[in-house]
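Re: that chain you flagged

S.,

Sorry for the slow reply, it's been a week of failed gels. I finally had a moment to sit down with the sequence you sent. For the record, here it is as I used it:
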Amino acid sequence: MSIDLSQFFEVFFEESFEGLDTMEAELLNLVPGEEDLETINTIFRAAHSIKGGSGTFGFSSVSDFTHVLETLLDQIRQGERTLTTEHVNLLLKAVDCLRSLLAGLQAEQEPDLTEADTLRAQFEEVLGINSTTQESNIQTSDSQSDSDTYQIDFKPHHHLFKTGNEPLIMISELEQLGELDTTVFYDEVPEITNLSSDECFLHWRFFLNTSHGESAIKEVFEWVEDDADITIELCGGLFTDELPAPENDSSTVAQEPLIQEPKQAEQAKPIKPTSANTNKKSTTPESTSIRVGIDKVDSLINMVGELVITQAMLNQLSEQDITPATITALQEGLAQLAHNTRDLQENVMRIRMLPINFVFSRFPRLVRDIAQKLNKQVELKLIGEQTELDKTVMEKISDPMVHLVRNSLDHGLETVDKRLQAGKDPVGTVTLNAFHQGGNIVIEIMDDGQGLNTKKIQEKAIANGLISADNHLSNEEINELIFMPGFSTMDEVSDLSGRGVGMDVVKRNIQSLNGSVEVTSAPGVGSTFTIRLPLTLAILDGQLVKVAQHTYIIPLISIVESLQIDIAKVSRVGKNLDVLRLRDEYIPILRLYDIFNHDNAIESLDKTLLVVVETDNQKVGLLVDDLLSQQQVVIKSLEANYQKVDGISGATILGDGRVSLIVDISGLIKLSGLKKPGSQELSIESQVALEAL
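Prediction finished late last night. Pasting the structure tokens below so you have them in one place:
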């Protein structure tokens, strides 16, 4: 009976990517010449697990490549070689290469081995291995004078299969070490009525002629040494056709060999994932599972139990006659049901929450590589690594954060010489900080570099036609210009900045998560980019408002205040725009009924309410008929279920079954045609002043 191993592919890939993350993190902790043996062993074990798993599934491109880096790690941990910076750099490149190979296999693509072959040659050069000599040695292995023959007795415990280990894989690895003869014994196999498919009743005796030594043999059985009886003895001499006969006693009866390797055994065929479309483009795989603490699962089970109890109580009440007592009990039961539902919702959302360390952990490597490329000395500080964030938000915020960190390293931090001239520590600091604030998460990317050059930013913006020379902007408004499309202060294009994703794309991606980003800076002190995000994209805290006969939802995170309009403080700008003077600010008034073409809405300003909202440091007022309740709503994608609607970010279903649309503040501003401060149009304040003349 054959076993379909493809069902285990995803587990293998997830564990392998986690192993690579472990390898990378530990490699970054290594100090050449002061290496910690425990750290080296951790890296070696991760590599060995990937090699073993890939060999099991027939992913030879991964197992073969991992073998050479595993050899280097083994020499270092055995004290045969001193760790150098070159070794660390090479091993980090190998981690990247393995990620690429595994990603290709996971995407059901034939992996590109170009980088793997190049790195393999570099490893062999470090190890002093000559490929030509290797091939010659393999071809003449029968006459090598430095080969030895070992007798290996391998008797697995009955539970071996339950540990996920497969003897056939170990036999295959032994065969790679030299010439192998295998004899299997089945004297302990019970009658078929007592046979269990998940227990191992076979045991083996191997005779191996190899030049690799006993340590290489022990390595093959390293993962099963606690789950089997293993003896390895040196027989001496060369491999011969007449092999020593196994001992025969009352407990072990030698049988005719069932498997002879390599001459008589059919070689195991590699297992490869298949796809109907072999030309499908390779994409970076996204994790499709979440590892959840048992405490969260237990809490969820308890909540479900409470729901079942409440449901049973309500069912029982429904069978009783209607009396004041049963009505009271029914009301209490419904209140309990609402409480249980709310608790269940919170517990389900907790399952999706992961510590932001899953994002932060990628930056030590990024900072190290870029600092080396820029010839800068950088220390990375991580704060608030256990702050939890929804998995979906976390996956989408990763790329914008990478760009902001690269920006701090390239634009913000000075070179060592310039820092010394400025009286600073030659080692620059980049700090990532995450914390909860209200119903949001705040992520700060801080550096102690030179800060933003407001003069240069303004000159570049004018030269690029992004603003006019007549604009009088504050330093804060000038700093915000770096988020405008097409803006860059770099005089020369490099692979770190000046091409590809710009800061405008970073801002747009963050806004797509219902978040915001802003920058503060001080010359010679440094800059701070602050990202504010909702904890989850699945649920929104919203304010329900009435516009004509329709109900809309405004995200609470965007609302500054709600107020009744003082007509005396309203001015008309141009032909169609009214603005409200509110504490030294002019707030443009947007009529939702006009934007969404609703009839029968209240149009008189003195009979309506104004909801002041803010996005991108710009405030506008939304004119509504009335304020309704505040509640959490489950967000449904309008684009996926209908089509994209400008000014609307999604929809939800209210308690009465009606569909309500969720307002997109940024989209509304664009839809209304308002210009942001810093554009070539006159600011609201300037227009009001001119109207007064």
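What I noticed first: The radius of gyration is 34 Å.

Talk soon,
D.
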